[in-house]
Design a protein that fits this description.
Blueprint lengths: L31 H18 L28 E3 L2 E3 L6 E5 L6 E6 L3 H20 L2 H17 L1 H11 L4 H18 L2 H4 L3 E6 L2 E9 L2 E5 L9 H10 L3 E5 L6 H13 L6 E3 L4 H9 L3 E7 L2 H13 L3 E5 L4 E5 L5 H13 L9 E7 L6 H9 L19 H16 L3 E4 L18 E4 L6 H4 L6 E7 L2 H10 L2 E2 L2 E4 L3 H10 L5 E3 L15 E2 L12 H7 L1 E9 L19
Helix pairs in contact: 3-5, 3-8, 4-5, 4-8, 5-7, 11-12
Amino acid sequence: MAARRAISSRTLQNLSIRPAVRIGSRRMPQSANASKMAVRRLHATTAQLAPATTSAASTATNFPKTHEKVEQPVDTQNFLDNKFVASQATQWIDLHDPATNNLVTRVPQSTDAELKAAVDSAEKAFPAWKATSILARQTIMFKYVALIREHWDRLAASITLEQGKTFADAKGDVLRGLQVAEQSCAITSDLKGEVLEVAKDMETRSYREPLGVIAAICPFNFPAMIPLWTIPVAAITGNTMVIKPSERDPGAAMILAELAEKAGFPPGVVNIIHGAAKTVDFIIDEPRIKAISFVGSNKAGEYIYTRGSANGKRVQANLGAKNHAAVLPDCNKNQALNAIAGAAFGAAGQRCMALSTLVLVGETKNWAPEIAERAKALSMNGGFEEGADLGPVISPQAKKRIEDIIATAEKEGATIVLDGRGQKPAKYPNGNWVGPTIIANVTKDMTCYKEEIFGPVLVCLNVETIDDAISLINANEYGNGTAIFTSSGATAGKFQKEIEAGQVGINVPIPVPLPMFSFTGNKASVAGGGANTFYGKPGINFYTQQKTVTSFWKSEDAVSTRAKVDMPTQS
């Protein structure tokens, strides 16, 4: 995901540290005692809020609901030992509201001491957390799920402010992560071991144990969902963790950390640090970190997978994608057109499972203008605005890259059916806006097909038969997901069996499995060929290691006086 990088290429800026909390002016009582009491109350309130970012300095019912300029942004803090801790960083990353480009917060490049302190905290907490009964951990997870539901709107508002998604889409971001947390509550069934009496008086049992300290490196495009792919699964299996949210939108992760403390997770189970490449390299090279979970671009993910694996760590890494949908003439046309427009342009196309490529079979090559009509009806606006269907892209740099790729399509001979360049809502002229764009008559050698655009751009290729469509899709290096639109069960069955992508939708444009299953992308979309996938049973296996114990309790006295040196067969 070239534009979805968890490692920002932006140069970090040296800035003076602003106050962490704004205390508004108020008229103080005249008496000295009353004045002192008011000051004590104010300090107590400030300490209780312990804001981690501008968006996290809120409550379940009081949070940002507009794109109005933040008059005095709050610096983002670390989360160590269940406390928000102001960073002593000398390098800071400015975070802007994508709808306005107004400053929202400054994110620190956590210092060497802060990075080490996070791992120290997790390492110290691990023995006691591992020894905590599974029922006690499950009880805490039930509370965590309830708190996420209680703070659902607050989490979504943070995502809208920092990442740019519409509020409705941001709520979906939270929900898909919440579902993983809910499924984690089934750990008492999912973590059962196996036992077998293999011979007289001898049994073998196999079960799973936590790894220790693990880490997650999260992308900008799902600020709540991706941290929740790690926190519930890793914690309930007995691990402690260090999370690095994207430096572009850490607010949701900070709220999730706050809720983890409220739910009862002991100090050190969840720690959050910040930064860009320096923090990533620390996570890769720190020997006490046993496993790394990463979602992001191919370049960053391949680097993390290769270097992390060389350091003896487990690494799961979801990388880039080019998700195709084959459209057959016999499909339910109205349903297909609506589904395609929603899947291509929702979240401004900034989803690893966005439908970015259409393979139009036979006469459906003439349907691109009709899809364009559906796309024109979508409202591009600030995410807090009523009725908004898609918001801005994450940054001015992302906007430029998307528009540059659209320009290459024109130059290379494709047809721009719908051009989103230059569009912007009147209320937010300074945002990072790219409107829905549809490019037809694309061929495999064009830049717009070869590159992951990661924006609201749909490219359309034409083929004659379903066999041609399957061959084209299988020839692509990526294998995150694919879909087919058809009314024929036989055609759908053929597609399902012959297609190589790891997640297949039949009349479903974004086939992301629910967490009782697993996220099963493959090929170049998952480092290591898809061996380590996210959540579900494979997720539990990733965060645990198997232990097998064979025990022998002889029921009668031993009578032999001579040792046996033959290979034990346990028979």
